[in-house]
Request: fold
Amino acid sequence: MGEKKASADGDRRIGRRALLIGGTAAAVGTAVLARDELARLWWRAPGVEKPRVEGAVDFRGAQWVAASDANWRRADRPDDYGIDMVIIHVTQGSFASAVKVFQDPGHGAAAHYVVRKDGHITQMIRELDVAFHAGNRSYNERSVGIEHEGFVDRPEDFTDEMYAASARLTAGICARYAIPVDREHIIGHVEVPGTDHTDPGEHWDWERYMRLVRKVPSASV
Reply:
């Protein structure tokens, strides 16, 4: 599952960027950083709001269940942060427990999607927003996180229905953002720099999963 606290990857709102030190460099650096923040947070201006439809999902067939606002950061991806990665997680618990903790503001983490053993998909954060799931701020900003019900040491938890549904989901994400379907861009949580997580674990069948993602017809995503 994602990190327990948002502070684990330093994901914070305005005011936490490091400033360049020394004379003109400091002034120029500060101006660049300020402009960058303003460009990314244009929707905070009075009267400006990116259109959002309550309950709408990015993946056809998913069920919307909102995560706590404390477990993600509002954004305008891919316009402010390019999306070039899908990160695969395992919940280390039941589907219901994952949904519950992602709704808990004290948890400090959540993924965009949770896939149940029977293939049911719940979306909890919009893809345009930054979910606190990877334990690395940069990776959070550039990725979509998908949790899978089960435990890393129980291969029987990774059902045919789960693999098939998750593959369709990942194929759709890759198609939307022109993400290459390869292991450099579809990775496990364990592969994120700086994380101490081991999911999806040795029993996750990457060869099978990637084959399924590639087989999804483009017309269906």
Observations:
- Residues 2-8, 12-30, 42-48 have pLDDT under 50 and may be disordered.
- DSSP finds five helices and eight strands in the chain.
